[in-house]
């Protein structure tokens, strides 16, 4: 799906640029025709010479001022989803990668039993239903008094299981299992080589499938003498219910951070002409800028040379500009 979106985005950019340039070329040809009719021959030659000095057009008619730059009108860049960010100082983190699973804290489980032995007269909910604290779950008729009593939810939760049906006798078997999963805990295994680096309060970047989260270590729990790891417990908000207990978790624990005079987002980096570059925007011109890079934390990279603070660089869909410049270069070579 991501590859399809990328291809669609590229085709939109190229088609839009082609249409824009075709319109611009039409106007330009019209002006040239008028100049040819009204201007001396030597001026026409001089205009042609200026066009040669200032750039070339590729096979799609895009105007390239240099082999490493392209002009993209603002409306075309917006349509293609090209976005920029300002180069700024930032923090580079040193992290360690660990893994674990999401669990529901024990205090957020509820096993609902009948208060007195009796017959189940009504059941108001089914497995999978969401219930609110105080909501009626079932009605049971006591065997001793033959009077009915209500069973209500003790917390906001979802019904994980329903054990009994209408007409069945209650006993020690729970009627319902309720689970409140609005707050989960990521239990991360910290093995021996990382134990001295990990502490309560450290920031953690979590990834559960395609969901990215940021949290902090709340506790470190020793599982026992025979277990070769400690467990870092990281609370995770799940108000929208998109996460499920049991999901695998990939985590980056931040164990150190330092200030860097200039950083860029990693997703902006491209390899162009065998160099690490970003594409810098100046007006409607986008040019590749080779960089000397320092350390990276997986999200941001330190810039040592090649970019100044405050310059606008392409942070979203920079691959579209790279693809356009590569096509222009190939057309120019032929």
CATH architecture descriptor name of the largest domain: Beta Barrel
Largest sheet: 9 strands, antiparallel
Strand-and-helix sequence, N→C? Answer: HHEEEHEEEEEEEEEEEEEEEEEEEEEH
Give the low-pLDDT segments. 1-8, 33-65
CATH class of the largest domain: Mainly Beta
Count every helix, treating DSSP H or I runs of 4 or more residues as helices. Answer: 4
- How much is the radius of gyration in Å? 32 Å
Shape estimate: elongated
Helix content: 10-25%
The pLDDT mean sits at: 84
Structural class by secondary-structure content = alpha+beta
* CATH-assigned fold name of the largest domain: conserved putative lor/sdh protein from methanococcus maripaludis s2 fold
**End-to-end distance:** 34 Å
- The tally of domains stands at 3
Number of strands: 24
Q: Could you please describe the fold and organization of this structure?
A:
This protein folds into three domains: 2-92 and 260-333, conserved putative lor/sdh protein from methanococcus maripaludis s2 fold (Beta Barrel); 96-105 and 182-254, Beta Barrel (Elongation Factor Tu (Ef-tu), domain 3), CATH 2.40.30; 106-179, OB fold (Dihydrolipoamide Acetyltransferase, E2P) (Beta Barrel). It is elongated and about 95 Å long. It contains four helices and 24 strands. The protein has helices at residues 2-38, 41-54, 74-79, 318-333; strands at residues 56-57, 63-64, 69-71, 83-86, 88-103, 109-112, 118-123, 130-131, 136-142, 148-152, 157-162, 176-179, 183-191, 203-208, 211-216, 219-222, 229-237, 248-265, 270-272, 275-282, 285-290, 292-296, 300-305, 312-316. α1 (2-38) packs across α4 (318-333). The chain has 334 residues and is of the alpha+beta class. The strands form six sheets. Strands 5, 13, 14, 15, 16, 17, 18, 22 and 23 form a nine-stranded antiparallel β-sheet that branches. It has a four-stranded antiparallel β-sheet with strand order 3-21-20-19, covered by helices on one side. Mean pLDDT is 84; it is low at 1-8 and 33-65.
